[in-house]
Specification:
single chain; alpha+beta; Jelly Rolls; 11-stranded antiparallel sheet; two-stranded antiparallel sheet; 7 helices
């Protein structure tokens, strides 16, 4: 299965008479949540989406400086990004953020087994693998609980402070079953064809299913934090991001991004430079309104039902 990062939305009629929808996965998300994830104005997101031309294949200008060698480099960079920085399990290998939002080693080193035994692991007692002003992330994989390798399953616990965001992100090797432990927020899911598959307000006690290859955005409400536990269908789930320090867009040449999205370098710079200092969890922008006691939620006990 594949999907497109760039391109306009379009509908065509297949041979069997069925309508076929194709377009960038970005069209499957609302403008306001994309603006929140990238920390840009909604008008900038609208310009990005409305400027895209063509579907699936984007024709470059005849004078484009992009050579076959450059295209080869793009493929290699994208592959390197996916294998080294976008693997959610590797966020625990020194790619986590400290509580000040600065890049630094995490306290748990997720690929190293911690005390707990083959079948029992205290997920709510371990140090967070990613921690910044937006929240905390705890990972559970086959390295921490070897029995998961036999089950082909994994899990993670996520705590988002009010207004914090995770995504857009998708998993290439696992389905995710997300249970809302407490709080409330909003979840959007975009299908591989660029259509919106879900846009829902979620509350404690609800369950959301995110299929493999379906991109998702999770946002905590402005009034209270959001805490979830997710079970994955892989003991080493792999995820890719379109925002934050591990965004795939940040590792693509400027010419490729500007031509693919049909935007100028000034607008592209806004999407590339924002959120460079945070990984996975994106704190609410300081310019998006007043925040309740900036550290109250983060330092409070976020004990769960685990």
């Amino acid at each position: 299965m594949h999907f497109h990062l760039a391109g306009s939305s379009s509908t065509s009629t297949a041979a069997a008479g069925h309508q076929k929808y194709t377009g960038s996965i970005l069209h499957g998300f609302s403008r306001d949540l994309l603006a929140k994830a990238w920390d840009v104005d909604v008008s900038h997101v609208e310009r990005l989406l409305q400027s895209q031309q063509g579907s699936a294949i984007v024709e470059l200008p005849s004078r484009s400086a992009i050579s076959p060698a450059t295209c080869h480099t793009v493929v290699n960079q994208a592959a390197l990004t996916w294998t080294t920085t976008s693997t959610i399990s590797q966020l625990a290998m020194g790619l986590g953020d400290d509580v000040n939002g600065e890049q630094g080693p995490s306290s748990a080193f997720g690929l190293l087994p911690l005390p707990g035994g083959e079948h029992v692991y205290k997920l709510d007692r371990s140090s967070a693998d990613v921690a910044n002003k937006g929240g905390k992330l705890w990972l559970l994989n086959e390295h921490r609980m070897p029995a998961l390798r036999q089950l082909g399953m994994g899990a993670y616990r996520l705590f988002l402070r009010p207004g914090a965001v995770v995504g857009p992100a998708w998993s290439v090797n696992a389905h995710h079953i997300v249970y809302i432990i407490r709080g409330k927020g909003r979840v959007q899911i975009a299908g591989p064809d660029g259509r919106n598959e879900l846009d829902a307000e979620v509350r404690a006690g609800q369950v959301v299913a995110i299929p493999r290859f379906f991109a998702a955005l999770k946002v905590a409400s402005e009034e209270e934090p959001l805490e979830i536990i997710s079970v994955t269908s892989s003991s080493m789930p792999l995820s890719s991001f379109l925002s934050g320090s591990t965004s795939l867009l940040k590792n693509m040449p400027l010419d490729v991004v500007t031509h693919a999205f049909n935007i100028d370098s000034e607008l592209e710079e806004k999407f590339r430079e924002k959120r460079r200092e945070v990984t996975a969890i994106l704190p609410q922008s300081q310019s998006s309104g007043s925040q309740k006691d900036s550290w109250t939620w983060f330092l409070s006990d976020s004990s769960s039902l685990l």
